Amino acid sequence: MTTTAIPAEARRAPAAAPKRRPKREREGAAWVFLSPWVLGAIVLTLLPMAVSLYLSFTDYDLFSPPKWVGLRNYVQMFTEDPRYWRSVVTTLTYVVVAVPLQLALALVVALALKGMKRGKGFYRSAFYAPSLLGASMSIALVWRAIFNDGGTVDHLLGTGGWVNKPGWALLAVALLTVWQFGAPMVIFLAGLQQIPAELYEAAAVDGAGKWRQFLAVTVPMLSPVLFFNLVLQTIQAFQVFTPAFAVSAGKGGPADSTLVYTMYLYDRGFVASHMGYASAMAWVLLLVIGVVTAVLFRTSRSWVFYASEGDR
Prior knowledge:
The protein has 14 helices and two strands, in the order ααββαααααααααααα. The chain is mainly α. It has a domain at about 90-300: MetI-like (MetI-like fold, Orthogonal Bundle), CATH 1.10.3720.10. Strands 1-2 form a two-stranded antiparallel sheet. A hairpin with a 7-residue loop joins β1 (about 60) and β2. The longest helix is centred in the first third of the chain and has 33 residues, at about 25-55. The N and C termini lie far apart (about 80 Å). The mean pLDDT is about 85.
């Protein structure tokens, strides 16, 4: 009878699983890595917001200690300041004009780029460039020169300088925003490329033309992207400052026709040194943007189509 020797390695007990670090120790390590962001959020965002909220209930001129006045800034804003309401109307007009035009142009260009076979990368970069440059003060000053008396628009159309006409100045500001359509265009293009070609083929088999395919296939499938762009551009439009400031030379003219909300806030806070009043204006703007965003999300249920849900 023979016996087979078992190697020493086989006779050893199986190696124990590596011991997991205690949960408390793992959480501690996570907080160490998160601490720079948490510290930055507290010091650079939450703390300034708390100070601004406090100042909105005070009379503060940047040079003397703030004096508590309760709701006086808000009462004055809504009942005693006609320029405030002019800035509100100007801002709403700007949002209603600039956002739809910008999104429409971005969608048209995205549709054109989708059908291109050659040079798509070049044109995509070229159309995106204004979004990188348009927010700068230098471009805004060039825009003012184009629409000023004796500028390019005056020579081509003979209408005079738009920036000096109350009925046209805000349109010049809005067109500068529309010109910066590159960012929503890139997002639209990415969404268009995700629409299955089979849907267009099925629509064509059913006899749908290009326009019918756009309404029945492209718009529903692109509605989540359209909604994203709409929310993003609406929030940015409410905060417009640089184009209006440059086109009006920092005065909001002519006749307050380009006095958008943030320009008047800047005027009250840093020109007139009414920082408490400006803080109250900032909080009203924050609340309005929050309400508008909530309304957009609420109404999106009736027109935004998500393929995973299978319905509107």
